[in-house]
Amino acid sequence: MSERVTNWAGNIVFGARRVHRPASVDEVRELVVAGGPLRVLGSGHSFNRMADTSGDLVSLAGLPRVVAVAPDRRSVRVDGGIRYGDLAVRLEAEGLALHNMASLPHISVAGAVATATHGSGVRNTNLATAVSGLEFIDGKGDLVTLDRDNADLLGTVVGLGAPGVVTALTLDVVPSFELRQYVYDAVPRSSVDAHLADMLSDGYSVSLFTDWTGLDFNHAWLKRASFMEGPWFGARPADGPRHPVPGMPAGNSTDQSGEPGPWHTRLPHFRMEFTPSSGAELQSEWHVAFGDGLAAIDAVASVRARVAPVLQVCEVRAIAADQLWLSPNYQRDSIALHFTWIADTEAVLPVVAAVEEVLAPLRPRPHWGKIFTTTPASLRAEYPRFADFHDLVRRYDPSGTFRNEWLPGPP
Ligand SMILES: Cc1cc2nc3c(=O)[nH]c(=O)nc-3n(C[C@H](O)[C@H](O)[C@H](O)COP(=O)(O)OP(=O)(O)OC[C@H]3O[C@@H](n4cnc5c(N)ncnc54)[C@H](O)[C@@H]3O)c2cc1C
Hints:
411 residues, binds flavin-adenine dinucleotide
């Protein structure tokens, strides 16, 4: 019997006939060997059709949970269905931490790294860079194990679900650390103009938020080790907790009191026990070179009369460069402009195209898991290793078991 499956946001109804929920890696392999088309559905938090298939979906949420810390305490091996929120609690209990987290802990590790999900911080690379090992069932039904000694790892981690079903990942970990979170209101645009790089560098992780109804930014969120008081670049300390999205309950957000707390209770904006963000929304995000951040903000300001009516909130973050072939941060320190839109695809899509048009001179790379209208040819032009990625996918999945309509085609 077919079931109606949607993504988290509800804007995508998957075309899949069935959703399989294997309870072991052997069962995953049997599904692959039985033939495709097949795609893995992580926690379903992407906003486009990248997880879609005309065949069957596979959810790994029912795999036995694995959290195996290496004897040297520098890495942890996890299963392909675990969510960051569950992993974080287990790591903290071991006195360990991940180097960074996204705004929400609800997403699966395998799905998040497949799209190069990131947090913020000028010295923080995206979450996919923590992957030192990958185990996946490829399109031939073989269990492939890659580590950093294998050049394929750099092309496979941000794999968009195309090389195979990731059944386990090994992640770098660091000793647990504490952070304080501070929120500031009314960040003057003049400060952003004069000090954007300094602002984004003034903490372990910094986010600037605006709803584009004006030129000033509504809030700055700082996650940092050291105490701070008084104004910050002309912004005033918030007089109580805030939610990034105007009008949403602040209680859903992580602690902003300035009290130190474990890394996983400060790095995400949203708490695991509540719906993250607004819940009724679409999202887009574009990465530009760090040095082009202000130009990107100016470009969006030039179309803000179109942006503001369909926007809930826009967030500006920094991400350090990496070497992962399909990472939007590939060999480029980046500033990312994220947009939480209203939940109205028809109204939002023309504005997405308008933002893409003004950002185009800055060579933006869209977030793989969010909404964009960039053509496959333009996408390929932004990724020097795109042809290598296609060769890699052809090698691991020669018969196209994991292929879908959405994945940008070969050059
Ligand atoms: C409220 C909200 C806040 C967000 N905040 C951030 C943020 O702060 N930073 C950011 O960068 N992004 C953010 N995102 C986007 C999100 O992190 C990405 O869309 C991410 O891919 C979601 O992970 P998922 O497990 O839901 O993946 P899914 O959407 O389920 O899948 C994504 C892709 O991964 C593949 N995949 C999943 N699991 C596997 C597996 N085991 N093996 C092989 N392929 C697999 C799927 O086939 C698909 O191609 C946010 C999204 C939401 C809804």
